[in-house]
Amino acid sequence: MTLRALPSAAMGVRPGLQSSVSARALDTWNPDIRQASDSEDNTISILDVIGADYWGEGVTAKRIAAALRAIGNKDVVVNINSPGGNYFEGLAIYNTLREHKGKVTVKILGVAASAASVIAMAGDEIQIARAGFLMIHNAWVVASGDRHQLREVAEFLEPFDSAAVDIYVARSGMDSAEIAKMLDRETWIGGAEAVEKGFADTLLSSDEVAETPENSANGKSVVAAHRVDNLLAQLNMSRSERRELIQALKGGKQDAALTSKQNAAVLSGVEDLLSTIQSLKTSA
């Protein structure tokens, strides 16, 4: 498969509209999954939520473009283990990888869900772990307003879903109507099935995937924080308010700077808040 065979993705972002990670994708994602060997200088790692999060972290098109410029026109390997995130940012990253002059080899180490699955389709060659998953669904956003505003949002999203169908069809060769149905019902595709259906070319060797349990407390904290962020967004709390609240729980520090005891305390606080928010939603 060549880059020229891949369709470009329609772009455009509606002001005030936030694309979010699905709860199931977050629950399935294991942030401890990494590549087993040290990265080569032509490797790009997508091992986080897509799009800048409340701490300014996450995988962005700007970061991927900078990495590709540093690599030059050489072949590139893209390792993916991501629950997805900002769908529009994912399309931008897909376009950036699609336009790279060298061969793009995508390795799905764990999960490539939602926006991350679109990014994965930019590979000339796609390898997926036998225990890995692709998850495809329609663009997922958090929105509020009356019926007229929500209808406008739905109409705005239709071209993005159509673009996703075109991308998956170009990769798999499946019928577009069947792909659209798969997006409508949110479909999880295991490693062997991904190869069988044409979403991937081969299964990834098991010795290329490793799990780093020493980072498990940090990983659980990250997942819990994103779950809280999603729930707060559904309660119509602004992005800046959510960021301030979660940073307060974390003591204003970044995960990388936390000790194991601090990570455990952060995780406990975030999980307590998560339980409280879920109770509020249930009683509402």
Keywords:
284 residues, alpha/beta, 2-enoyl-CoA Hydratase, Chain A, domain 1, 2 domains, seven-stranded mixed β-sheet, two-stranded antiparallel ribbon, 10 helices, 11 strands, 46% helix, 17% strand
Model description:
- With 284 residues, this protein is an alpha/beta fold.
- It folds into two domains: 3-211, 2-enoyl-CoA Hydratase, Chain A, domain 1; 213-283, no CATH class.
- The chain is 46% helix and 17% strand.
- The strands form three sheets. Strands 3, 4, 5, 6, 7, 9 and 10 form a seven-stranded mixed beta sheet that branches.
- Helix 2 (61-71) links the parallel strand 3 (43-46) and strand 4.
- Helix 5 (147-172) packs across helix 6 (176-184), helix 8 (216-234) runs antiparallel to helix 9 (239-249) and helix 8 (216-234) packs parallel to helix 10.
- The model is unreliable at 253-258 (pLDDT under 50).
Topology (SSEs and partners):
Layout (H helix, E strand, L loop, with lengths): L17 E2 L3 H6 L4 E3 L7 E4 L14 H11 L4 E7 L4 H12 L5 E10 L1 H6 L4 E5 L3 E4 L4 E2 L4 H26 L3 H9 L2 E4 H7 L4 E3 L4 E3 L4 H19 L4 H11 L10 H24 L1
Parallel strand pairs: 3-4, 4-5, 5-6, 5-7, 6-10
Antiparallel strand pairs: 1-8, 2-11, 7-9
Helix pairs in contact: 2-3, 5-6, 8-9, 8-10
Entry summary:
By secondary structure, the chain is α/β, with parallel strands linked by helices. It is 46% helix and 17% strand. Strands 3, 4, 5, 6, 7, 9 and 10 form a seven-stranded mixed beta sheet that branches. A two-stranded antiparallel sheet has the order 1-8.
